[in-house]
Sequence to fold (398 residues):
Amino acid sequence: MKCRRCPGTAVIELRRHNAAFCKRCFSEVFVEQVRKAIRRFAMIGAGDRVLVAVSGGKDSLALWDVLLDLGYDVDGLYLGLGIGEYSDRSREVTASFAESRGAQLTVVDLAEEYGYDIPTAGRKGARSTCAVCGLSKRYVFNKAAVDGGYDVIATGHNLDDEAATLLGNTLRWKTEYIARQSPSLAAETGMVKKVKPLHRLSELETAAFAFLRGIDYVVDECPLVAGNTQLRHKEAMNAIEASSPGTKAEFFLGYLDRGKALFAREDDVELTPCGECGQPTTARYCAFCRARAQVLGERLGEGPPVVVEDRDVVASMSGEVMPIEIYGRAPA
Amino acid sequence: MKVTLRNPDREVDVPGGRAIREVLDELGVSADTVLVIRDGELVTRHDHVAESDQLEVRPVISGGGP
Fold:
């Protein structure tokens, strides 16, 4: 099979584009898509300091790799989740990548800094394991970015992640969350801008790019992910994609182009500092502090033992279905 | 022909001498959801494999988010 752009032999076929590419041309196409995403949503401005959230997986390491090559001022942040050998291996490959690229990596260990790990939180908390993991990540990434003086947080969410999140919210008509889903979330007081430069690229593409770039990433799946709602939604999308290539991209990118404007934004709420940690929240205490207190069996302030209200248990998925104080607002 | 499947890791023997697409079909795997690696190189579903080849079939789906 020949490359669409040159006489070379194709190493990857992208059925949604009805095209195949050789190693060199595919890497060029990949970077072009990242550039396009950054430009279209004005994700990173001149002189911005970027903090990329790295897990050791294909997406975040591919993103860090591209942003470094594009010349951005980008450091990495790894959050140790305490998931046994899986976390050990993730930290190892992330540190190894940073060293190989001469890039700056900050490591935060959830148990050391906040007193719990994800397996414990999954057992003791009101949220599912994936939900409390996502909540913890968003909180720590934002706090680290604020403390470190970064302008932008970049995450490796890809097209499959975004399409699955949109599908999940659409199936339940979570219109507020649908309105809020965006590849770029504006900064506001206490919350750093968040961007997703890989949102135009599928998981197949990010995996192929990481492989072709020789990036040693964690292939194993998180051992706690079984039954994850987002995984089921991805499988459903892939079943459709198998018979109708391009549906996934049309669903999410079409939403951004033509669907998003149809959903009213209902996020006109006031954010105030959390009474425990000072991070922005819509309540007296932020979702992270409430969840942490519940896992640790602690009280917040002078109040009664923490009870997680229904509104906080917003979903069992680890996607963007989260309170605004953690997730942020989409640009108008 | 030996095929190493990842997540969970296991090894299976299947007939070679045919297109990778046919191998994936036999394994019940969609070509859009895996990388297929032969001798350290990516190959497409249209490539042919010999009986002596060894393949790694590596899923690309992750459920936990980045």
